[in-house]
Specification:
By secondary structure, the protein is mainly alpha-helical. It has four helices and no strands. The chain has one domain. Helices cover 77% and strands 0% of the residues.
């Protein structure tokens, strides 16, 4: 899977989960589960892109130096945006009482 497709799928799925949750179509438990699943899958993809690195190097590459490991700044921005949106959905779902 190309990095562009992974970015588009992750961002669009999290935006869709957020919108469905805010509109009231999706319940808090489902939103929490789907947001967590989307973030876990996208994080796994980020680690798969850094296959030859140790865990420390991969974490540094993802969070501190996004230009290493073949990453691009767009991937970093998309990943951080998806993380913020997923955490926002999770916190809001917990606050409404899963």
């Amino acid at each position: 899977m190309s990095w562009k497709l992974a970015n588009i799928l992750a961002a669009s799925s999290l935006v869709l989960i957020f919108v469905l949750f805010e509109v009231g179509v999706m319940g808090p438990a489902n939103a929490f589960f789907f947001a967590g699943t989307a973030l876990t899958a996208y994080t796994a993809y980020q680690f798969l892109r850094r296959d030859g690195m140790s865990l420390k190097e991969a974490l540094q590459s993802i969070f501190l130096r996004p230009a290493t490991g073949g990453g691009r700044m767009r991937t970093y921005i998309t990943y951080m945006g998806c993380t913020v949106l997923g955490v926002f959905v999770a916190v809001q779902a917990i606050a409404t009482g899963i």
